[in-house]
Amino acid sequence: MEMPNDSIEKIHAEVISCKSCDLCKNRTNAVPGDGDSKASIMFIGEAPGRNEDEKGKPFVGMAGKILDETLAKVGLIRSRVYITNVVKCRPPGNRVPTDDERQVCKDYLEREISIVSPKIICILGRTAYQSLLGGNSILGNRGKFIQKDNRLYFLTVHPAALIYNNKLRKILELDMETLAREYRRLELT
Ligand code: URA
Ligand code: SF4
Question: Which of 46, 131, 153, 186 has its CA at a distance of 20 to 30 angstroms from the CA of residue 111?
Fold first, then answer.
């Protein structure tokens, strides 16, 4: 919901003390989004993992390392993008967040998108694809741009998926190249 006096700082403060769903019970830290609140690209993952839960920051573990390296390879700088997740608290054992948890947490994500107002929203993996676009097969749709409700989305695989399937590394790199190219094109217009 868009509110005139909303800000990233306000959302972050609310997230940090949020008790709106049961995921608050097992967390060490809630994990608000991170990065440039005026970024042209926003990345959306699934949920914090163990490292993120410990540090209170998104994508700081193994998946984060892969994301950072891939961004660097295509000339995108992490501190100049905005990175967040569908849910802001770690599901126990890293299980996929439930529909209810996603629904309850979605207001924060919508507000982040409204404020950052990115030119491109990059969906990382199936959970974000389902939650934002109602999609299912990320492998069948990765590398594509989708225009919906005045927003431009780009779909790719989740960096954590590479940990278990090294073939996806090339795919993620290829997609990030596509994303970086479009980003540069939009920045020039
Ligand atoms: N995986 C995610 O989806 N998000 C994180 O922040 C870390 C790992
Ligand atoms: Fe609140 Fe989202 Fe954390 Fe649930 S996951 S407690 S809704 S911040």
Answer: 186
